[in-house]
Task: structure prediction
Amino acid sequence: METVAIAGVGLIGGSFALALRRAGFPGRILGVSSAHTIEEALALGAIDEGVSLEEAAARADLLYLAQPVQVIIDTLERLDPLVRPETLVTDAGSTKRRIVETAARCLKRCLFIGGHPMAGKATRGVAVAEAGLFEGRTWVLTPLHPGDERQASVQTFAGWLDAIGAHLLWMDASEHDRVVAATSHLPQVASSALAAVVGRRAETPASLAVAGPGLRDMTRLALSSYDLWRDILATNADLVGDTLDAYIAELRAIRAGLDGEAARDTFAAGERLARRLRGERGASR
Amino acid sequence: METVAIAGVGLIGGSFALALRRAGFPGRILGVSSAHTIEEALALGAIDEGVSLEEAAARADLLYLAQPVQVIIDTLERLDPLVRPETLVTDAGSTKRRIVETAARCLKRCLFIGGHPMAGKATRGVAVAEAGLFEGRTWVLTPLHPGDERQASVQTFAGWLDAIGAHLLWMDASEHDRVVAATSHLPQVASSALAAVVGRRAETPASLAVAGPGLRDMTRLALSSYDLWRDILATNADLVGDTLDAYIAELRAIRAGLDGEAARDTFAAGERLARRLRGERGASR
Result:
């Protein structure tokens, strides 16, 4: 792996470049982005050169698509005539079924492996990129075909992910989307909807003076931009819909018995998950 | 104010005692709690003496009820024959209408002012009490009658709240309950229900490896004990029900248009509240 090209040099793409550098990657890093972003990424030392997608595809050993989900899909649809057969294409999309399907359908001339680094920040852009962003964080890889994980180029890529501190997790694209619908997409929708409702009911400054740290925790995700989330929700609508139905049903059951004991089981189950997530003992199911 | 008695020497009651001490309160602090808690509170130097409620009421200039909401209500119902007319009774209950109504009905021989310090921790008990718990935090006071806030004993109490670093906010009990239904009770129910649903859908360790920091934020409140929340929800059921209805309606609207633009307005409104809460500029409505 001598040349890496990153399409979409934002927080994730820029952090991947910085992380590779810090881990000792000796090759060349190309960036595909808007002129303004390329300038910023060059100034930060994240990339060596700004190029077109055509040039990136023609030169890269690893082509990393770190764009919003729908842009990744659009890129995959026109990438096949541009790539060299030796190139490994991967991506950072937050949903995997549609991306993997598109790659299987459109990308015939080279290898593709889906990816999803479980890292992020409330702020976007290469300006907040960090070499340590993926340290200790899970990086999901979703192969297209059985055995893809044993291909030499995939093994080399996986080695670099290990070198930048990420924890690799191999998963089927459908399983990935099912799990993140519950662990990521539902919490995002729950936070944005909660913040919207609280905003309408707490219009005076005094109202927010009465808010404790709990409301801060519960609205941190609501800082996220819909521009990214639009694609995520649209490409996982069926599974997010299922988890939302379960969430709404849970809330309705609590609502029906606020003056009784209706919420006791929900609180107990919620506490178990919260403790499991924090690795506390006696919290297993 | 020479003698303070605290009924319920837990996190809040114990922290109030430690905070008074650190602020230079020279008088005596009595505690009313279980034998085990009294022993712990004495060892921590939070209180000087463990006494019965009867003795506390007979000796205290300030009687602070820092118990769960229903226990506060029960205590208020039997307190009147026990108190001296000079005593100021106050409380730390998370809902205020039912407590203030009970005080107005039952406590005829002395002054009462409702209170709600907006501070807490995921862990309960005097062992985690802190002198600095109320520093920079809002402390709501809800008077029973117009003019109560000008009574000498209330002024003295308010002076000590100021000395321990709390920000006083005078509010009507109904307004308090309406605001906290949105800023505190709805977030708690949203967190517990979310954690319960995620727990059922993320049963394998691999599922939680895919969870990012967002799920941690969204489930911190779910660590809270239902033993406290049962009374809070029961004594604010009408207003919590209203906010839950609005939340469920918001979630249903998003659910109906996951593959379209349905959530755009919700995300925008949620982001505005999240920024207001963080004091960011350009975030006003």
About this structure: The first strand of chain A starts at residue 3 and ends at 7.
